[in-house]
Amino acid sequence: MTCFRYCISSYLKAFSQRSDITVEQEDIALGFGPNDGGDFTLRSHDGVNFHIHSPILRQSSPFFDGLVSFGSGEPIVTLTEDARTIRLMLGFIYFAKELPTIEDYVTLENSLEIARKYEITAMTSLLRSMFWTENSPVHMRKNPIAAYEVACVFGFEDVEKACYQHCIRTINLNDNRTITDILPLCRHPRYILPLIAKLAKRRAIITETLHAIYAFPMNLVSSQWDATHIIRETLASRLVCEACLKSYTDTVHSTVSWQMFWVDRAYQVLVRRPMDECAHVFEVGFLCKPYDEDEDVTVFCEDCFTHIQLKNHKTWENWAQIVRETLETKLGDCM
């Protein structure tokens, strides 16, 4: 017992003081030396021996349980990992309350790989939680591209989805430097290229849907309204004032000023936020608020504004809801 306590004490002290140590060939891992009471030895591929307490090792994973139980001869096993990686793994196995710090996504990926290889589920769970921990250096918000890569490698679908949403908020596809800056830093381009394509597809769908003023659902007299709960014959008359209605319902439709006004503002929000954060865009208050407060905008027809806000705001929101549903259907998993 005294020996075991000494092992813990010396290791914690060494780890806190030398967490970034470079272990040279044949160095003895601090806290896991021959005098620290271990009865089983893990040897790194660069020749460093770690003297381990076999009961602790066996409890950490089915892999090590089998390794210790069915081993024969001298209890020394050489692993393919270097000493630094094994040292990190042992930090998770021995000291769940004194976790080694993961400072970057490369270290996180390497740590997850060794946890997967040796079936250390508790280590995997702890590492996975670091994506979500606010003060973690590898919180997904710090670098959603790098976090997305790691999540894809290990099949963390919840992390992938959250990282994708962070990418919607942060990646500007209008900036030509975006791709040239991102790709050289990627360790797994096979995951990042589809991500960029998905973001580009999302933007294209939003652009095409909102700016297709002669197509459903932007066209207020489209025959496709007959397949919805909205009455096509009265939709335009409820959302367009009498003065604008005649030109709008001509064979060659004109644009509706409030619609162009809304599209411009809705687009700026929709391309920068996930759809589940955009419900307010499809409420009449979103249409009216900038009109009331922004003195520099080109305003839409006063009569149309009054017609919608005072008399037909519910009809407008019914129309906007159809636009939202159309977008969500087209976007699919790109939302």
Structure description:
The protein is mainly alpha-helical. It folds into three domains: 1-82, no CATH class; 101-201; 212-334, no CATH class. The protein has 16 helices and three strands. It has helices at 2-17, 54-60, 62-69, 83-94, 105-117, 121-129, 144-154, 157-170, 177-182, 189-211, 232-239, 242-248, 257-270, 284-293, 302-311, 313-331; strands spanning 40-43, 49-52, 76-78. Strands 2-1-3 form a three-stranded mixed sheet. Strand 1 (40-43) and strand 2 (49-52) form a beta hairpin. The relative contact order is 0.06.
Mean pLDDT: 84
The number of E-state strands comes to 3
Helix content: 55-70%
Task: Please tally the helical runs, counting DSSP H or I stretches of 4 or more residues.
Answer: 16
Structural class: mainly alpha
Q: What sequence of helices (H) and strands (E) makes up the elements?
A: HEEHHEHHHHHHHHHHHHH
Outline:
rod-shaped
List low-confidence stretches.
Answer: 1-23
Domains, number = 3
Note the gap between the termini. 57 Å
Rg, Å, rounded: 30 Å
